[in-house]
Structures are given as structure tokens and as C-alpha cells.
Amino acid sequence: MLSSSDFASASWELIVRVDHPNEEEQKEVTLRVSGDLHVGGVMLKLVEQINVAQDWSDFALWWEQKHCWLLKTHWTLDKCGVQADAKLLFTPQHKMLRLRLPNAKTVRLRVSFSAVVFKAVSDICKILNIRRSEELSLLKPSGDYFKKKKKKDKSNREPIIEDILNLEGSPTTSGPPVSPGLYSKTMTPTYDPISGTPASSTMTWFSDSPLTEQNCSILAFSQPPQSPEALADMYQPRSLVDKARLNAGWLDSSRSLMEQGIQEDEQLLLRFKYYTFFDLNPKYDAVRINQLYEQARWAILLEEIDCTEEEMLIFAALQYHISKLSLSADTQDFANESEVDEVEAALSNLEVTLEGGKADNTLEDITDIPKLADHLKLFRPKKLILKAFKQYWFIFKDTSIAYFKNKELEQGEPIEKLNLRGCEVVPDVNVAGRKFGIKLLIPVADGMNEVYLRCDHENQYAQWMAACILASKGKTMADSSYQPEVLNILSFLRMKNRNSTSQAASNNETMEMNPECFVSPRCAKKHKSKQLAARILEAHQNVAQMPLVEAKLRFIQAWQSLPEFGLTYYLVRFKGSKKDDILGVSYNRLIRIDAATGIPITTWRFTNMKQWNVNWEIRQVAIEFDQNVSIAFTCLSADCKIVHEYIGGYIFLSTRSKDQNETLDEDLFHKLTGGQE
User: Region (Disordered): which ranges (predicted)?
Assistant: First the structure.
């Protein structure tokens, strides 16, 4: 038996500060504990000593010096390493956080500061009714990010507080009764697929969620366009190095908000981080589609991604159309018209799937490898030579292009055979000028070979462009995505095509429009307002009949077809190099880019990657590819963990399939992105 003096020597005093929700100041509580007392026992003693009747279930211990939560309540203090000098804080795990959404709306909601960010984002997306939370993450912007916005708010003489959508009662712990992350083929549609309005019968699902029908509309509908002055205020011409610095703020998905120094009620950005948007479905994704559209819209307006003037006008026309439909009070409600029996729809889907669409010539399709053969013009840029295109006979088969002097020689040896697997494909198009070009950057041992092809008309361009895009991913024209890709390119070209036969826009419409709201400030400076309005309205004729959700999806598709789409930039120093380069990370490849000129130097595909790891001591990422190619680099504009997580995250997202029961393998995500730290 121990005497009381022996017991006293084995125990010691532990000071714990307590966060009282209703009081300004934290109170200190002194407990007498021993090393074999478990964390749960410490919390029990604390609550008994505080002696305040309230719900303490959300409270946990935070260890300030070690910057970690003590969440394993069965561990003893000795096992945790807690001694008398430990500074512990007894605080709620869920705290308020302000999130700026892609549509520039700020929501204030209760978020877990103890769960890893991957889980916290999943809970946030459940509240906001956004499926596929793995595509989004939280970004901590640089210090001056919100200051600019405040200046803008003052000029509008609007208090900032009014712009905040308060979802304080949000049940992040339990989530809504039916999680929007779930989805089955026979699930009742949550939104009308044409107008994007919430289907009122299903809004009862969100009865426990703060996302009422009104709040849902705020998130699912486009905001009115910003004034040209506000746009000019926010616009900053950015070099690739500037863009790289913007990406330094992504939070680590494997650690909690508290561990990353995020304070209660701090403002963060919720953004789509990974540019692979899986299974976008208007029936369930009105909020997701709208937020995606808004992120694309701001990227275009603030020139975070480059596009031609012709493309800028299409984006402007679509924005004008969407804002017009969003503002019109009499947005038609198609919900009643389009009610189709779900079982009927599922059966007809199954029928089409089983029949495999057209049954004609099935055997012929299997044995026949598709190929393209036609006259195209080719040009290889060389110094001091003007652009001179020369016509050849081209044959596109599998993932390669071969060209011959003329059609008669196609059975012999080609002049050259270009293997397009892993190449960069860039459109070089001006529809008004009848120019349909394809720029190919083909990887070779010492960099990239540049080749330009020129087509005669839209149809030829769409077929060859689609074939090049698929070949760059290692797919042939036999792939089921080839025809949809051709149609997608053609529909984008038709939107660019100015409709000369259409009626000229009325003067009233030109007067009403504020064209500078729909284009980047740099583009607005080049044209007179009236001239710009006329050109936008001219482009609008091609999209004027589109329903609201289709117009947003078309905008997203057009954004996805831009050459720079989905590239996230980081400033790095490659091993053995004496100068800094830009590393572009995309959903399927890494690109080394010259920081001064912006010209791609080399491309590496994820499909050729054998392994990658991080040397945490020297903060270096090392990657091995097929054919004994290996690269290593240190990251200068951000922590190497951020770049490592991007690569692992994209590989994780490529494992998703519609057959999965919509449950994400969170362990696999952390395994691929954690880097065995």
C-alpha cells in the first residue's frame, strides 16, 4: 500500500486554461494529476472542478507548445509526454470560420478545428450541398488579399457584414440527414436540371441543415456582375512567378486547421483545387456547377488564365446571357414539365447501356482501327525564317501522325513520323479570319519540338484536334470519348462564329448593357464601350436560346478547352540547374516552364511515373519515370508538401469511378499525399 506522502510525490500540478464560450477571458484551472492518468480522466477532473452545467462534449485538450490536439482520450499523460510544464488549453473543437466562396460570397459557419482539413472540407461541402468535396480545399491568401476587397466595399458604401451568409447553426458533426455526397441512379433530383432551382419537394431533406431554399438559391445562382471600377481595383497583371506565389497558401489536407495556425473567425478561401470535375450532374449539382462557373468567370476576368480576344468575347456573351437569365424574375420553372418517372428513366438508361447504342457494324468497329488521312499544311519554326506552311499528305493512326510528300507515296517511308503521346496540344484558331491551326509541342530528350499544323475548315480541324488531344493522353480514335470531343470542339467553334445573318442588336439593348463588366480590364481598355457592347451582343446571338444551367456548363467547357486550363504553377529549382524554373502541375502531367519566357521546356506524364517521394531534410521532391528518367527539385514559392500533395491528389482522383459506392478511400488519399512524413 502507498502512503499519502508517496502518492503526493508521484503526482504533480497541471495548469489548464479553459475557453469559456460565454466569457471573454480564459480561466486557469490547476489540477493534481499523475503520469498514469489518461487524457479522458484529466478532462473529467476539469469539468468537475469548473462545476458549470453545460454541454462539454465538443471540448478537447490542445497542447500549445507541441501544437497538437490530445484526442486519444485513452492514452496516459506519460504516453503523450505531458509533464508539469505543458501548456494545455481546454477548448471547443468546432469553431466559427468565414469562407469566401468562388462566387465572392462569404459564408460563416462552424467547422471542426481538430479534424484534418480533408475531413473538414468534406463537412463544409455537406452543409453547402456540394458533391465531390475531394476536388475542393481551403486556401489561405496573402495578407493584402482582403484589403483590396474592403476598399471596394467602401466605394460601394456597403458594410462588409451584409455580404456574409450566416450558417452558424450548421451541424458539421452529424451532417444533413441525406448527405449530398451520396448519389444513386434512382435518387430523386435535388435541382431542376434546366433552371437550376431547388426542387421544393426535396428541400425537406435539408430540414436539419441551415441551407434553406433561400440560402440554397444564393449559392446556386450567379451574383450580379461587378462594376468595371471594382474589377479594375481587383485586377493585377500577373507573371508566372506571381501566379506561383498565389498557390503557396493551400492548407495541408493531412493536418487540422488549429495545427496550421488558423484562428477562430479567420477568413479563408474555399476553392476548387483539383481541375478534374467528376460526374457533373445538373440534377444534383446546381451549387457545385454555379460555384465552378464563378471560379472560371473570375479566372477569365482577372486574367489568371490567358485567352484570345475572340474567346474573351464568347465568355462575355455567356456571362451576359447567364446574368440576364439569373436576374429575370420570371425564370421559368420547368420542374413540373420535366417530371419523369425515375424508374422509367433508369430502365431506359439500362436499355441503352445494354444495347451499347447503335448495334450496326459492331464487329466491323472492333476490328477496324480508325484512321484519318487528308491534306494538311505543316510548318516547323526556325530562327530567321518567316512562317511558311507547306502542304503534305497526313495519316493519323493510333497515337502517331506520319506525313508524305503526296498521297501516292503513302505506302512508302514517311518524311517523318510524330509520336504524340505525352505532347502538348494548343489550339491556334481565329474563326473570323478562317484560321484553324494546331500547335504541337512534342517531348524529345533535350526539350520540346514545336510543330504547327493548319487545317482548311472547321470539320477537318475538329477531327484532327480531337485525335491529337486523345493521342496526347495515350488514347486512340477508337476510344468512346473521340466523337464527343469532336462535337465539343465544333460547338465551341460555332459559338465563336459571328452570325452575320442574325439581326443586329437593338440600340436599347446596347445602351442597357455595361460591357466592361464582362471582359477583363485590359480588354476593356482596347475598345470603345459601344463597339464592345455590339461585339458581345453579336456573339450572344449564338447562345441566346440556351437555358441557364446549360449556359454555365458551356462556359465551364469553354474554360476547360483553353490551353492553360488546370495548370497550377510553382517556382522551383531543379537538381543540377543554376536557375529557377516554373513547374506546372496538371491533372495528368508535370511541365517544366522557362520562368522568363513562359515557354514549356519538358513534359512528364503521370502515366509514365514509377514512384515519387520527398527528402524532408533537404525539402526535395524526387520523381522516377519510365525509361530511367528521374527528376528532383526543391520548391521555392511554397512548401514542398503542397506540391507533393498536388501530385498525389491528382493520382488519387484518377482512381475514382462511378461504380464505387460514392465512399472515398480517405486512407488512400493520405497515403498518396502524405509523403511518409
Answer: 164-186
